[in-house]
Design goal:
The chain contains 14 helices and five strands. It has a five-stranded mixed β-barrel. Helix 4 packs parallel to helix 6. The protein is elongated and about 195 Å long.
Length: 473
């Protein structure tokens, strides 16, 4: 019976120890593992409870300290909020007061402005209207920064001051004066390669500017003069050089009434070779035909002039024929062989005609080709015109619009081909007419002299027959 009671007591004790081990912290549980008796267990339990109480006290102390700190932070935030709210109310009240005062002042200002309000409005309007002209004026290249003054005055919300009104009047007066005078000054000029170079510039009013024999345009975006990448014709450049080199007196010069755009468009006009290139293959064919015709015409002209001189020299000595000219060769045919005496007039006439006809092809050489070139030039030009119109219609079809810029290439090719065809036909027509007239005059001399020889022969035979009492047949 005692044994059973002891066993029950031990079981209850062990159960209590297990429950205590579960409740104790980890360190106490590890110490509990070393407990051997119940007294030790009680001591360890007391110690654990003491440690736990101390820890709880520390946590409570820390919590109380943090609570006080949080309360202080909340109090500070509330004070800041109250101060900001008060400042906001003060500022709002001051803003409303300032708005009311500003409204009163504006009313007072408008009442006191009177006619000055219209004056200030006109001032801003004049400044706005003049800003664009001053911005693009070449005089701003000599007096930079004026456009900014006009733009600032035109956009000003406040009333202009007396100084600004005086500056506006001065700038408008200076623009009028500078537009009517020729000025010489030094400034930075943007060259064609983009570099900047200090150069002497001569400005004729607000119309045109030059440096040496080079023309300049004013670039308002950079506020400087810019040299044209492509200069106009040499005669205009010579005028520019004369103007820049002159010191006194009157000098002939060129101006651009549009103040720049017209000169730029003029420099973009294609030269002769660029126009010829627009004719493309047909243009080259036309020029080749024209060049061949011109060479043939020049060669034949030189030849006929030399022949004409030699024939003229031969006319002064018909009794001594020289075979370096057609007339001498014709005379040599008739008189060259004294042993051969022709009695038949028809045979003599045929021999003379043969000699003249032998010279005609050389005298009329290349005239057939020139007539062919005269006829072929306009026809080739017509071919180029048709090709150009085909290109024009093709561009219209591809783009779906009749923009003149898109049609310019085809129309340009058509017109250039037509001009080239007429350009070779007309000079070659005159050249062929001149060569034909010159060759006919030489052939006429040959016919006259040959007929004269024949008539002289017949007269001589008639005289011999009359002297012998016979009859010439």
């Amino acid at each position: 019976m005692k044994t059973m009671m002891m066993t029950t007591t031990m079981k209850r004790t062990l159960a209590a120890c297990l429950a205590l081990a579960i409740l104790l912290p980890l360190g106490a549980t590890q110490s509990l593992a070393q407990v051997e008796t119940l007294d030790d267990l009680i001591d360890e339990t007391r110690k654990a409870r003491s440690d736990e109480a101390a820890a709880n006290a520390a946590r409570e102390k820390e919590f109380i300290a943090n609570r006080d700190q949080r309360k202080q932070m909340v109090a500070e935030a509330q004070a800041a909020w109250d101060a900001a709210t008060k400042r906001n109310l003060d500022l709002s009240t001051r803003f409303d007061a300032n708005e009311a005062q500003l409204s009163e002042l504006e009313t007072t200002l408008k009442a006191r402005e009177g006619n000055l309000g219209e004056l200030f409005g006109v001032t801003r309007q004049v400044a706005g209207d003049s800003a664009a002209a001053i911005y693009n004026s070449s005089t701003s290249g000599q007096f930079p920064g004026r456009d900014q003054f006009f733009m600032r005055l035109a956009k000003a919300k406040s009333l202009p001051t007396i100084t600004e009104l005086e500056d506006l009047s001065f700038e408008l007066m200076r623009e009028i004066v500078e537009t009517g005078r020729v000025a010489r000054f030094r400034t930075d000029v943007v060259m064609a390669d983009g570099s900047s170079q200090d150069s002497e510039v001569v400005r004729i009013g607000g119309f045109i500017a030059m440096s040496g024999d080079q023309y300049l345009v004013y670039e308002p975006t950079i506020g400087k003069f810019k040299m044209l990448p492509r200069q106009p014709a040499p005669e205009l450049r010579e005028l520019a050089a004369n103007v820049t080199q002159a010191t006194t007196g009157y000098v002939e010069g060129a101006i651009d009434p549009s103040r720049g755009p017209l000169l730029t468009l003029y420099t973009q006009r294609p030269d002769l070779w660029e126009r010829i290139e627009k004719g493309e293959e047909v243009g080259y064919v036309i020029l080749t035909v024209g060049a061949l015709g011109a060479l043939c015409a020049i060669y034949q002209l030189v030849y006929l002039i030399g022949v004409r001189r030699r024939v003229t020299r031969q006319l002064s000595s018909l009794d001594n024929p020289v075979r370096d000219n057609p007339l001498g060769r014709v005379l040599s045919t008739f008189r060259g062989d004294p042993a051969r005496v022709e009695d038949d007039v028809e045979v003599i006439e045929l021999r003379i005609s043969e000699a003249v006809l032998r010279e005609v092809p050389t005298l009329e050489r290349f005239q057939g080709f020139l007539r062919l070139a005269v006829a072929a030039g306009p026809l080739l030009g017509l071919v180029g015109t048709v090709l150009g119109m085909i290109i024009t219609f093709q561009s219209i079809t591809e783009s779906g619009s009749s923009d003149p810029k898109l049609m310019a290439a085809g129309i340009g090719q058509a017109m250039i081909a037509t001009v080239l065809g007429l350009g070779i036909a007309i000079p070659l027509l005159f050249a062929n007419a001149g060569l034909s007239s010159l060759s006919k005059s030489i052939v006429q001399v040959l016919d006259e002299q040959s007929n004269g020889l024949l008539a002289e022969h017949i007269e001589r035979k008639l005289g011999e027959t009359a002297a012998s009492g016979g009859r010439y047949a």
